[in-house]
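job 3f2a | input accepted
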Amino acid sequence: MPAIPSLKERYRDYFDIGAAITPQLLQTKGDLIKTQFSSLTAENQMKPGPIHPAPDTWAFEDADAIAAFAREHNLHLRGHTLVWHNQTPEWFYEGGDKDTLLSRVKAHMQVMFDRYAKDIIAWDVVNEAVADQGDEIFRDSRYHQILGDNLVVRSFELARELLPGGYFVYNDYNEIMPAKRTKILALLDMLKSAGNLVDAFGFQCHWNIHDLDLDELRRSIELYAAKGVHLQMTELDLSLYASSDKEIYDAATPENLALQADLYGKIFAIFREYKDVIDSVTFWGATDADSWLQGFPVRNRPYNQPLLFDGECQPKECFRRVVEF
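job 3f2a | predicted structure (325 res):
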């Protein structure tokens, strides 16, 4: 059997190819990860809730294991994420006033930078702060209720103060949908006008095979890059289910897998075209078996298959479309 081509070698002259991983995945699929990917992101282990569950409690073990693996195999490491409403422990908000929350965010950042700054090449400073619906730019999170519209700018100011040489990213999803894109562009303007606080915008790239508009993808890349930021594709997967799909499939159809392969090929052709502004492309998982999309959001769905490798670490047709160009 011929050797499988290496994604990271094929894209060496384009951008980093990454995967979101867990320490457990490093134990079971470490060979695949170290040979195929040039960059790692901790799926959950560096988020505030898991790593800092109580004021005087830090759970470094899992994050340390990921950082050690990256060092051992000369892989880049992304820091995900410092400020995110969805996995911030309740104690951050206790007291309910702006100064207290900011002091806790600052202290959290300081510990993370002190421990991991030598390993991490890019930090997702704030994650998913923009509202999906309505006219307001910011979602109505606990962070926003306490800090107001200044929450993202202030978070980036703290990061820049504590780690002046850091590479800082704002990360969000639904990034190519025109209404939300307009809000994200306005937020990038805020960060730039406040002192060039942001280095890159992170496209989460949680897409599906049925309704991805490649023209909007291309237009979005150009619009974001025009703001003077680099781009990182931070959480890429390509679900076999449409966003609104309520159907439960018994198995992936050959037609859907063929459509997925064709679309992955087209997506990466666009990414290669914009290699001068794209730093990295990270898959949210290493194989189909590890994907967060198994059963999401309809819990009785069968196993989704959104990535390039199947659950046995074998390359799918979509892998061939990505490496053959």
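job 3f2a | The first strand starts at residue 16 and ends at 21.
job 3f2a | closed
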